[in-house]
Every structure is written in C-alpha cells, then in structure tokens.
C-alpha cells in the first residue's frame, strides 16, 4: 500500500482542490498534515473530507515547518501499514496526475524525485538558486540531479529509515537528496509539470542561504 | 578615594542587576547555584568599578594595557559562553517541541469506516 502525504500550511482553498484531484487520480490513502495553519485549512479539510474513507487528516498544534509535516505524514503512513509514501505540495504546484509515475517508479527504486524543466515558467531567482544548489551538491557529493528543490518525491519505507531528515523547514528536499547519495540508495527522476502559482511563497533567499550553510553539516552527520 | 560619575552609575547598575537576580531566586525561577555564580560575577564587577587601581596594579598590568581592555575581554568570554549555552538549549527545546507536536498528531489517527 502507498500513501500520499500532503503537508499543508495556510492553503485552505488549494489544499482541498489538490486532495480532490489526488483522490480522482490515485487509489492510495491520502494523509493531509495541517502544519498549524492560521487560516481555516484544518476546519475546511475536516468538514469536506469527514466521510472520505481514503483521507486521514492530522494536525500540528504548532507550526513546525514543511519538513516536520512530511515526517509526521510518513510516520502516520508506516503506522497504517503503508510500504511507501509520495509527498506532494498542497499549493497546487504539483500535478496529481503524475502520482501514477511515482507509484510505478517506486516499484523499481528506493526513492523517486520529481524534476521541473528549469527553462519553463520558473522565476529567475529560483532557477538560479536551484542551479547553484545543484552545482554545489554535484561538487561536494558527486551526484548529478536535475532539480534539487522539488517537493514532489516518493520513497519506500526502507529508504525512509535511512534518509530520515532533521530539517524542519525548506532544507528538507536537499537533505533527503544528500542522504540518498550518502546511503547509496537507488533513485530515479521523473519529469513533472512546472507550475508556479505564487511568487512569494516557498523557498526564500534566506531559506536558500540556510540550506547552503547546512550542507557541510548534512555531509558529516550520520 | 573619590568615586566618579561613571563609577556611581555602574555601581547602581550592578546593584540593580543583583536585585534582579535576587528577585528571580526568591521567586524560585533560578537556582541558588545560578544566583551565586551570577552574584559572584557582579560582585567582582562592582569591586573593579570601585577599586580600579587595585585591579590595575595587581592583576591586569601583566596582560592588559588598560583595565577597560580586561573588562571587554571578560565580557566577550561571558557573552560567548552564554550564546553557545542558549543556542544548545534552544535547539534542545525545538527538538522536544517538534517530537511532542508530531507525536500528538500521529496519535490522533482514527480509522474511518
């Protein structure tokens, strides 16, 4: 069994639409983790999906960050008997139609990462931030990846135990990528649509700087 | 011995800090050990303020040109220690809060149907 984990923070409208699309495209269990949203995300989710057997809604009483919400979702999935998880952002930037590709790839690989075409629609600062991160990871860890900051990814239970991340916020994808290489896990990349709906949400320059500062730490930590 | 304006100001400030410490100790917000350590530091400070000549001649002259230099170095050492200590404590608290919040969320799993 596979579970789709959707970390949510202040995405009342889009998270509902995203989960509805997932339910249409996949037969997997959906675990929505509200990360202490200040808007009515949690109430709306509970109201709309109360009777939906395939949706489990969890909530953090405090905002911990995307990485922590992903970890909560994954651990809930393991407790419910899932053998793999696919993470998808709640803000509509990932097309749920691609989940099927992740499900297929997870039959062959420990981890599956989504990648976006950097030339398409990606704001220039994100494109360059991503390029810098890719260059650094290639330099330090010798791994060639096509998109380091994409939150659309999947992993098996076995892989989760090895890459279990410490990052609570946006460094999580980079940390997973680095741990994947360090633990010599098999992975593949699948091309996903490049969708940007909100210029000012997601990884900021400050987050990117923190990611770079943390690179040596992730490199030397177990 | 004539006490200057700056010395007077620093003396008042030191007494105020000792009062703050005493107040927190009486409210059981800090332990007797914490109160004693910080009280000791402020006591040394007040002695340096009131008797600068003694410290200048007996302790400082071999290592520092001015008493002020010694004060700056000592303050930097204390601040560095406090920063490291605070950082470790904050990280520990963050970790504990994260574990607690996530555990509460996972425990709330209810099977439907």
Please describe what this structure looks like.
Chain A has about 220 residues and is of the alpha/beta class. Helices cover about 45% and strands about 20% of the residues of chain A. The longest helix of chain A is centred in the middle third of the chain and has 18 residues. With about 110 residues, chain B is an all-alpha fold. Chain B folds into 2 domains: about 50 residues; about 50 residues. Chain B has 4 helices and no strands. The longest helix of chain B is centred in the C-terminal third of the chain and has 41 residues. The termini of chain B are far apart. In chain B, about 5% of the residues are buried. At the A-B interface, strand 3 and helix 3 of A face helix 4 of B.
Q: Evaluate the radius of gyration of chain B.
A: 22 Å
CATH homologous superfamily annotation of chain A: Spore Coat Polysaccharide Biosynthesis Protein SpsA, Chain A
In this structure, how is the largest beta sheet of chain A organized? Answer: 7 strands, mixed
Low-confidence stretches of chain A: none
Number of folding domains of chain B? Answer: 2
Q: What is the CA-atom radius of gyration of chain A, in angstroms?
A: 16 Å
Q: How far apart are the termini of chain B?
A: 86 Å
Strand content of chain B: under 5%
* Main interface: chain pair and counts: A-B, 20 and 14 residues
Considering DSSP H and I runs of 4 or more, what fraction of the residues of chain B is helical? over 70%
Helix proportion of residues of chain A, in percent?
40-55%
Ordered list of secondary-structure elements with their pairings:
The complex is a heterodimer of chains A (222) and B (113).
Chain A: E1 2-8, H1 12-25, E2 29-35, H2 41-49, E3 55-60, H3 66-79, E4 84-87, H4 99-105, E5 111-116, H5 124-141, E6 153-156, H6 157-163, H7 172-182, E7 187-192, H8 205-220
Parallel strand pairs in A: 1-2, 1-4, 2-3, 5-7
Antiparallel strand pairs in A: 4-6, 5-6
Helix pairs in contact in A: 1-2, 5-8, 7-8
Chain B: H1 5-26, H2 32-50, H3 52-60, H4 67-107
């Amino acid at each position: 069994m596979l579970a789709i984990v959707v970390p949510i923070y202040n995405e009342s409208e889009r998270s509902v639409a995203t989960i509805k699309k997932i339910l249409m495209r996949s037969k997997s269990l959906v675990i929505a983790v509200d990360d202490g949203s200040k808007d009515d995300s949690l109430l709306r989710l509970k109201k709309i999906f109360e009777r939906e057997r395939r949706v489990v809604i969890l909530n953090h009483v405090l905002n911990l960050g995307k990485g922590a919400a992903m970890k909560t979702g994954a651990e809930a999935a393991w407790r419910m008997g899932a053998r793999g998880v696919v993470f998808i952002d709640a803000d509509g930037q990932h097309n749920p139609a691609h989940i099927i590709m992740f499900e297929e790839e997870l039959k062959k690989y420990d981890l599956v990462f989504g990648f976006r075409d950097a030339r398409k629609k990606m704001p220039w600062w994100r494109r360059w931030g991503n390029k810098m991160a890719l260059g650094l990871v290639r330099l330090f860890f010798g791994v060639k990846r096509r998109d380091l900051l994409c939150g659309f990814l999947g992993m098996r239970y076995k892989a989760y135990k090895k890459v279990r991340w410490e990052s609570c916020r946006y460094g999580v994808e980079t940390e997973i990528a680095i741990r994947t290489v360090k633990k010599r896990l098999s992975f593949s990349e699948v091309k996903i649509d490049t969708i940007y709906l909100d210029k000012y949400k997601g990884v900021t320059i400050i987050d990117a700087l923190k990611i770079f500062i943390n690179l040596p730490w992730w490199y030397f930590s177990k | 011995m004539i006490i200057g304006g700056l010395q007077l100001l620093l003396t008042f400030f030191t007494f105020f800090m000792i009062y703050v410490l005493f107040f927190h100790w009486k409210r059981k917000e800090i332990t007797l050990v914490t109160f004693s350590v910080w009280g000791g530091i402020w006591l040394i400070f007040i002695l340096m303020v009131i008797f600068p000549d003694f410290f200048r001649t007996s302790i400082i002259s071999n290592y520092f040109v001015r008493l002020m230099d010694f004060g700056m170095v000592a303050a930097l050492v204390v601040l560095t220690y406090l920063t490291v200590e605070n950082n470790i404590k904050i990280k520990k608290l963050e970790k504990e809060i994260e574990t607690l919040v996530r555990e509460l969320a996972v425990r709330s799993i209810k099977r439907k149907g």
